[in-house]
Amino acid sequence: MNLLYKFFEKILGKSTLYYPGCFTKNILPGIEKNYEEILNNLGVNFIKLKDLEYCCGSPVLRAGMKNDFEEIKNKNIEIFKNHNVGLIITNCPACFNMFKFEYKLSEQGIEVEHITQTINRKSPKLQVLNLKDIFYHDPCHLGRLSNIYDEPRDILRNNGYNVCEFSKNRENSFCCGGGGGLVNNNPELSKNIAEKCLSELLKDSTITSPCPMCFYQFKNNSDSIDVKEFSEIILDK
Predict the structure, then answer these.
(1) CA distances (Å), 150 to each of 65, 159, 213, in order?
(2) pTM: predicted TM-score of the whole model, two decimal places
């Protein structure tokens, strides 16, 4: 895979795009900067679309507006081609799922990675003692919708953590309650779901998730749990 991306960049002149997604960009700009720092530390040369960046269309598609989604998809594909993008790296599981499986960008000559795949692929595999317990939460879009389970856990272990599992994990992971517009349409139910998910954890436990929505949802619904976004764990913030 490394040779493939070098081929994109050196031979075909293709660019690697870091795509933070709407939620990260607009709600969690500090997390966006974290991932930029991580990519720089890994030696990844990337571009950003900044003001040209457009929503991936996940909320529109999930709401059943298929024609509007097709317009968004086609607009994004045109932007990607205009910027000669050969690889998209995103930290947003929903964006990853859209680009990889709904857009089928590989058919357009564009590869897609979730940033946990990038980190796991490019980081040295160190043998580090497990120093601290951490609970890992599988986001819906990254786990059961995209089948990415091992990479985030491998990264945590490689950074010295003992990965603890929820009673419901991987394809059976409990939703954080933040997706599907539930926060806005039924905030009480959304809060109850988050609290139920966190009820397994003891006070002062640490939980992490590589989904900005899950992180935000848990952070806003817990006073006694240490909630860390995945980039904060990697950068030890």
Answers:
(1) 33, 14, 20
(2) 0.91
